[in-house]
């Protein structure tokens, strides 16, 4: 019942739909009381020998008319109640998807993808059943039970009715006990389903790695263990589920036995007529559905409660980064500045960046280099405000990033990450992802700047070539260049390239960088790279080591220092020379 109360916001919004549906349900329950009464009267007329052909025809006509009327009304309440449940399912899916798009990277580091998929595909339909079948069984079982019992007590015999209800307290205890077990087991079963989803997602995404390391059989065995765990937990749910109907059937059977035995005695003592006994058993038959519905209701509510709990756990998680109360929504400058900037990932004990200082003026280029793990990507992500940052330490356009609205900040910056995510669409659609309204010529020009022109000519469908899931049909360099074209097409004031030229050869890299300098003259650019030739033209180069700036300056100044940068640059030039000679 708590789940229905928690969904009261939805029922209030669509109260007219549910009110009309429940009204029609009440009308159906009233109409269903008429046939047993007519049949009981007919039995008494047969016993008395007073049934006429016209009277029988009238009774049959009334029963047929009732059937047609109930058919139409059943359609109406099903349309209203089940339609409302489907609206709830759509609403919850929309809310869940919107919530997931607002969450920051730290959320996805804590949550498994498979578990999130399980909530969307399994838990939300279980909640939808609560708003559809749950409301139906709750209202119908209450109306049908109260109306039928009232007629049995008033029109037949109250003593016979009470006697037939003796086993019912046992039914209430059994459904409550089974319901508690079902809630616990269904919650565990949904968790296991999420684990299985996550395993499948990782195996499909990493199928190339599995094959490269000949781990197919081991992965199949690991999946078998996960699926067996899911099976065992679902079977444990089914065991409890399977006990509901037999328990209810046995209890209702005892009610029929008492009703038939005691009712026969009352007929012999002339306390009730034979027609009354027939009508009573028909009314008792009408109670079978409410009794089964009551058990089914407990089943639905417990499943819905477990699923709703999992959904609320997701909704209760809030993003680490959100818009400030009075955000700055317009940036007039493209300067980027760090003032003693120190950054620590959520949950980490040691800072990833320490005391970083620099000022990048509008139209300048900043190069960020250093060993693997030195903090290059961290600095780029911090600039996008993907994680909480210290106040008054990182500025864009002269404004602290924590005071800028997220939409304004991210519209100001075009970002090309290390991990190049392409969607299962065409090359043109992937390049125009940030600007869906871009013309075909603009898309083609951006791809030319990213040195994808020659590659496009080799694809039969050109711009309309489908790239497959995550760009599986493309090489690493092609994926990088499409990602660069995507950022260039946005024409943002600040461009951040996070080591996105690692998969292209030196000549292609040189061409792309030349196009960047020509196309983005007067705009701010930040380049994090391992190949120092990518940042050689930068106005300021930062050398990071364990999150600290250990060297800074232009290319010539750093070469004069004869430190890590100079040593690394000479080594890379030698490697390039040797490769060229080879």
UniProtKB/TrEMBL annotation:
Q: SMART domains this protein is in?
A: AAA
Keyword set for this entry?
A: ATP-binding, Cell membrane, Membrane, Nucleotide-binding, Transmembrane, Transmembrane helix, Transport
Q: Which residues cross the membrane?
A: 18-35, 55-77, 135-156, 162-179, 248-268, 280-301
Which residues does the UniProt record annotate as the domain ABC transmembrane type-1?
19-303
Subcellular location per the Swiss-Prot or TrEMBL entry:
Cell membrane
Q: Which residues form the ABC transporter domain?
A: 336-571
List cellular component terms (GO). Answer: plasma membrane
Give the molecular function GO annotations.
ABC-type transporter activity; ATP binding; ATP hydrolysis activity
Q: ATP-binding as a keyword?
A: yes
Asked if the record carries the keyword Transport, the reply is yes
Membrane topology, as annotated: Multi-pass membrane protein
The record's section on Gene3D superfamilies has: ABC transporter type 1, transmembrane domain, P-loop containing nucleotide triphosphate hydrolases
- Protein name, UniProt field: ABC transporter transmembrane domain-containing protein
């Amino acid at each position: 019942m708590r789940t229905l109360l928690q969904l009261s916001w939805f029922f209030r919004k669509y109260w007219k739909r549910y009110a009309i549906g429940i009204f029609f349900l009440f009308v159906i329950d009233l109409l269903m009381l008429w046939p047993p009464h007519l049949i009981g009267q007919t039995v008494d007329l047969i016993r008395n020998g007073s049934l006429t052909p016209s009277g029988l025809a009238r009774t049959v006509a009334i029963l047929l008319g009732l059937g047609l009327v109930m058919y139409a009304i059943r359609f109406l309440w099903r349309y209203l109640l089940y339609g409302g449940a489907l609206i709830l399912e759509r609403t919850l899916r929309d809310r869940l998807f919107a919530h997931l798009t607002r969450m920051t990277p730290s959320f996805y580091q804590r949550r498994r993808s498979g578990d999130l998929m399980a909530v969307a595909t399994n838990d939300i339909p279980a909640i939808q059943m609560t708003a559809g079948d749950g409301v139906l069984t709750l209202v119908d079982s209450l109306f049908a039970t109260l109306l039928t019992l009232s007629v049995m007590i008033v029109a037949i015999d109250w003593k016979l009715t009470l006697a037939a209800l003796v086993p019912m307290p046992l039914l209430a205890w059994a459904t409550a006990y089974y319901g508690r077990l079902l809630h616990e087991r269904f919650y565990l079963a949904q968790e296991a389903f999420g684990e299985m989803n996550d395993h499948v997602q990782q195996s499909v995404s990493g199928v190339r790695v599995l094959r490269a390391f000949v781990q197919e059989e081991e992965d199949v065995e690991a999946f078998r263990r996960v699926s067996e765990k899911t099976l065992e937990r679902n079977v444990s749910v089914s065991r409890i589920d399977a006990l509901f109907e037999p328990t209810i059937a046995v209890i209702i059977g005892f009610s029929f036995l008492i009703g038939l035995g005691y009712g026969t005695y009352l007929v012999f003592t002339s306390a009730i007529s034979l027609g009354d006994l027939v009508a009573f058993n028909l009314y008792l038959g009408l109670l079978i559905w409410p009794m089964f519905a009551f058990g089914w209701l407990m089943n639905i509510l417990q499943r819905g409660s477990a699923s709703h709990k999992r959904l609320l756990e997701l909704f209760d998680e809030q993003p680490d980064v959100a818009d400030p109360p009075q955000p700055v929504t317009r940036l007039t400058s493209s300067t980027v500045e760090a003032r003693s900037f120190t950054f620590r990932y959520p949950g980490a004990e040691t800072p990833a960046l320490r005391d970083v200082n620099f000022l990048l003026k509008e139209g300048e280029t900043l190069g960020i280099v250093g060993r693997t793990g030195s903090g290059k990507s961290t600095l780029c992500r911090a600039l996008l405000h993907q994680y909480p940052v210290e106040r008054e330490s990182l500025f864009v356009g002269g404004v602290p990033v924590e005071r800028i609205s997220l939409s304004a900040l991210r519209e100001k910056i075009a970002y090309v990450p290390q991990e190049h995510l392409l969607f299962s669409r065409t090359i043109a659609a992937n390049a125009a992802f940030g600007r869906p309204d871009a013309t075909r010529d603009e898309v083609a020009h951006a791809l030319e700047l990213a040195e994808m022109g020659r590659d496009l000519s080799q694809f039969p469908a050109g711009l309309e070539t489908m790239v497959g899931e995550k760009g599986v049909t493309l090489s690493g360099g092609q994926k990088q260049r499409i990602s660069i074209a995507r950022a260039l097409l946005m024409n943002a004031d600040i461009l951040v390239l996070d080591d996105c030229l690692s998969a292209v050869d030196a000549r292609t890299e040189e061409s792309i960088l030349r196009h960047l300098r020509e196309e983005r003259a007067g705009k701010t650019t930040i380049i994090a790279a391992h190949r120092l030739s990518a940042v050689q033209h930068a106005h300021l180069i930062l050398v990071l080591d364990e999150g600290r700036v250990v060297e800074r300056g232009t290319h010539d100044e750093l070469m004069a220092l004869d430190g890590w940068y100079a040593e690394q640059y000479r080594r890379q030039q030698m490697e390039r020379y040797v490769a060229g000679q080879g």
